[in-house]
Amino acid sequence: MASVRRIWAEMSLRSRLLKCFVLAVVIALFLHVYNKYSGSLPLKPSQLLPADFYKQISPLSYTYLVNQPDLCHNRKPLLVLMIPVTSQDSESRAAIRKTWGQENLLPNVDIARVFFVGESSQHDPKLQDNLQDESLAYRDIVQMNFMDTYQNLTIKTMMIMNWVAVYCRSARYVMKIDADIFLNVPYLVDYLQNKPKHNYITGSVISDGRPRRNPNSKWYLSNDVYPESLFPPYLSGAGYVFSVDLAKKISMASKFVRPIPMEDVYVGMCLHFLQVRPEFAWTLLPYMNLFEIRHFNYERCTFAKRIIVTGFSPTDIINMWADFQGSGFSC
C-alpha cells in the first residue's frame, strides 16, 4: 500500500513538474516573439501632423447628423459597447438589441450601447428618415457626416474615440465591437473585475503584422504612407476593450500619427506613440484566445469559455443566444 502511495505521489510530482515546464516554455516563447517584433518598431513621431493629414481624422472636420449627448448623463456605466455599423444594417442592430446588447442584461451592471454610423453613399432620403425614427425609438444611434466606406473605418474609429471622450467619460471601460460578433457579456464582465482602470487595453494582440506592398491587395500601403517594415503590436478590430481614459489619449495621439486606412493598425500606432502596450487576453492550460478571431460553429460550452467569436449573421446571433442562456448551468 505504501508503495502505491509513493508511486502516486511521484506521478503527481511529475505531472506538476511537466505543467511547470510547459508553462515556462510557453512564457519563454511568448516573450521571445514579443521582444523580437518589438525590437524594430517605427520611431515615435515628435511633431504635430501637417494640417492636411490631421484634417482627415479631426473631429472638427465632421458634424453630427444624429447624436446621443445625454446617454451617459447621471450614470456610470461599467462598459460602453461601441458598435460600428452602416445605415442599412437595421437587421444587425435589431439582433444586438435582443441579445448581447440588450438593456439590463445583468443585474446591477450598467452597460450602455451605441451604434456608430456614417452616411450612406446611396443618398436615400427614406433610409435617413428610417434611421432618424430608429434613433428616436431606441436612443442608441450616433451618425456623423463622413461616407461609410472601408477606407473610412479609421475615421469612424477615431470619431468613436472622440465621442466617448466628450460624452461618456463617466464610464469605466469601452468596447469597440463589430456587429457580426457573438459577445459573451457575463464572461467579459467577470474578466474586467480587478483589471486596471487606466492605460489598459485588451483583446487579440497581433505582434507580427507587416504592411502589404502589393497594389492589388485590399490592405495595400505604399512606402510613402508607411515606410516601416513592421507594425507596432495592435489588436484585432473585431473587438477590443479599453479603459475610458484611453479614448481621449488616443484622440490626442492622432494629432501626431499619420492616418492609414487600417483602423486596427492605426489604433496600435497611436498606442505605440502613447507607450501603452496592449494586453493579450488568453488563458493557459488549455491555451485559448479569449477574443477569438477565427470563426467557430456554435457549441455552447466552447462559446461559454470565450469572450467573443466572430463571423455570424443577425439570425445566427439570435438563434445562438436563445440556447446560450443555459450555458452557465451546464458547462
TrEMBL record:
Entry EC no(s): 2.4.1.-
Keywords: Glycoprotein, Glycosyltransferase, Golgi apparatus, Lipid metabolism, Membrane, Signal-anchor, Transferase, Transmembrane, Transmembrane helix
MF (Gene Ontology): N-acetyl-beta-D-glucosaminide beta-(1,3)-galactosyltransferase activity
GO biological process entries: lipid metabolic process; protein O-linked glycosylation
Source taxon at top rank: Eukaryota
Membrane topology note: Single-pass type II membrane protein
InterPro entries, per database record: Glyco_trans_31, Nucleotide-diphossugar_trans
Subcellular location: Golgi apparatus membrane
Family under the similarity heading: Belongs to the glycosyltransferase 31 family.
Protein name: Hexosyltransferase
UniProt source species: Tachysurus vachellii (Darkbarbel catfish)
Lineage: Eukaryota, Metazoa, Chordata, Craniata, Vertebrata
